[in-house]
Specification:
Blueprint (H helix, E strand, L loop, with lengths): L1 H41 L1 H18 L5 H14 L3 H36 L7 H12 L8 H9 L3 H24 L3 H22 L2 H4 L1 H5 L8 H24 L2 H8 L5 H7 L1 H26 L3 H37 L8 H25 L4 H26 L3 H26 L3 H28 L5 H23 L2 H13 L7
Helix pairs in contact: 1-2, 1-7, 1-14, 2-4, 2-5, 2-8, 3-4, 3-6, 3-11, 3-14, 4-5, 4-6, 5-8, 6-7, 7-8, 11-17, 12-17, 14-15, 14-16, 15-16, 15-19, 15-20, 16-18, 17-18, 19-20
Length: 513
């Protein structure tokens, strides 16, 4: 029975990770074709305005006050304890809590529509289009109560379903975006495409949670305020709200800062130049997203030693994969942008290097943060995160005014180095007795190898300059695979190799007699 539970946990985690990677690969290939077309049909100013306005609408989303983040550890704990009654009660409480948030978010959308033309100084002829786009995009708040079903799937370690739905959503959004841009619907058409994609996503999610969906009718009439589940959500949602707010200020305001302090058109090179590092970061974060529920289950079941072993292994895995992916990206990003949207939209090598450093750090810090949030201890993160966000925000603005487009990414780096690099290991030690030295070793050795590896990749690119997409993809893939092979041969002990082979073996289904 124990081996079956372990096998199930491993299969679900890897299934979630694999579907996320496959989805991202498909989305990347589609974006390679779609983005130049959108830029041609929309123009740089409209395209940049859409990206920046989307970030402003993201702030409206914060007015759900951390309900989703509060539900995650509660549902994960109930799922780990196989308490279906508690799970369904949390679904009902979550839906009712979301309904309260929708009214407030709708009011915030109205305010944003009135202010958006001032926040984003677009040309006079685009102001109405920008306001109409925000109005259409703001209608997505009506879908918010359905997000409780996504939370439930992730807590049950069925993130592979969510990833599949996200792939369908992304492809739908891209198709609608291209069609509406070609039809000259401008900024409004792009937000309409996003709204339609959201409807499709939640239709898929709800269809996979029919039993939980029936709880919605009870949620509309039950006196949730007096339930234990409501109290549990309320106990966690405010710290989670602050956590989400800090995360958005720290990571998702860069386009707003560039668009507001420089110009919406400058958002385009800033945004596009970072797409490969951001893509790698999201892929790496997928490891933590796929693993957190399994780690939380180990903690709930009291398997502390196994928990710490898995955490160290995952930290090392993320660091190794990050170096393998990010070093070739730093070397080849100029060529990538030139082939993709034209060299004039490349914002410089320095921006790519800093973005790669941020991607490496955030991928590891996200894993560590998931471990703490996954057991409902989000309050522990708050003091350090608030300080980090303040450092990030202040320096992002100051440096943007001083050095231009590099300012926001430099602010992010300063925040990570000054706070998360030591604060999160300290919290992990307090919560799980995890050794900060072991964490440092797990992340540190790949960092040591990053510079010589990047130099070797650069020499290869100089010796065999790629002429097109196929050459570039082949050289980047060869470099990454060579690094991973070298790490397997010299970076892992015999015991670690055997352990990974055993895990791969667990994934192979066998008939039982």
């Amino acid at each position: 029975m124990i081996q079956l539970a372990v096998a199930m946990r491993v299969r679900r985690s890897i299934g979630t990770f694999v579907t996320e990677q496959a989805s991202t690969l498909v989305i990347l290939l589609v974006a390679l074709v779609a983005t130049p077309l959108l830029l041609g049909w929309l123009g740089d100013e409209r395209y940049g305005a859409v990206e920046a306005a989307a970030e402003w609408l993201g702030y409206v989303g914060l007015l759900e006050f951390g309900i989703g983040g509060a539900l995650l550890p509660l549902m994960a704990r109930a799922a780990a304890q196989r308490d279906q009654g508690q799970v369904l009660a949390l679904v009902a409480a979550g839906i009712r809590a979301y309904l309260f948030a929708v009214a407030l978010m709708a009011a915030a959308v109205v305010v944003l529509i009135a202010a958006i033309a001032t926040l984003l100084p677009v040309s006079p002829g685009l102001r109405f289009d920008l306001q109409a786009g925000c109005a259409v995009g703001g209608m997505a708040v009506l879908l918010l109560p359905l997000s409780v079903f996504r939370v439930l799937l992730e807590a049950e370690q069925r993130g592979y379903i969510v990833n599949s739905a996200l792939l369908v959503q992304s492809l739908s959004v891209t198709a609608f975006s291209l069609l509406l841009a070609w039809a000259k619907w401008g900024i409004t058409g792009q937000f309409l495409a996003v709204l339609l994609g959201g409807v499709i996503f939640y239709a898929i999610i709800v269809s996979r949670q029919r039993a939980a969906f029936r709880e919605m009718r009870q949620a509309l009439t039950r006196r949730i305020r007096e339930s234990d589940q409501w109290k549990q959500i309320k106990d966690l949602n405010w710290p989670t709200f602050v956590f989400n707010l800090c995360g958005r200020i720290g990571l998702v305001t860069d386009n707003i800062i560039v668009g507001g302090l420089l110009s919406p058109a400058m958002v385009v090179p800033f945004f596009l130049t970072q797409q490969l590092p951001v893509l790698a970061r999201r892929q790496l974060q997928g490891i933590g997203n796929a693993s957190w529920a399994g780690l939380a289950e180990l903690h709930v079941q009291g398997e502390s030693e196994v928990f710490n072993q898995r955490l160290i292994e995952l930290t090392r895995l993320i660091a190794v994969l990050a170096v393998a992916a990010l070093a070739p990206i730093v070397v080849f990003d100029r060529k990538f942008i030139g082939l993709w949207v034209g060299g004039a939209r490349y914002a410089g090598d320095t921006l790519v290097v800093i973005a790669a450093i941020n991607a490496f750090l955030l991928a590891i810090f996200s894993l560590w943060g998931w471990c703490i949030n996954g057991i409902g201890q989000v309050r522990m993160i708050m003091p350090g995160l608030v300080v980090q966000t303040a450092i990030n925000f202040v320096f992002s603005i100051a440096l943007t005014l001083k050095v231009g487009i590099l300012g926001p990414v430099l602010g992010t780096t300063l925040g990570f180095v000054c706070v998360s690099s030591w604060y999160l290991p300290k919290l992990l030690h307090q919560c799980f007795a995890t050794s900060p030295l072991d964490l440092a070793r797990a992340a540190g050795w790949p960092i040591v190898s990053a510079l010589p590896f990047a130099v070797l990749v650069w020499l290869m690119a100089r010796s065999f300059p790629p002429r097109g997409w196929v050459d570039m993809a082949a050289e980047m893939s060869a470099a990454a695979l060579a690094y991973l092979a070298a790490w397997w041969l010299v970076g892992l002990s015999r015991h670690e190799k055997d352990l990974w082979l055993q895990r791969i073996n667990v994934l192979i289904p066998r008939d039982s007699y």
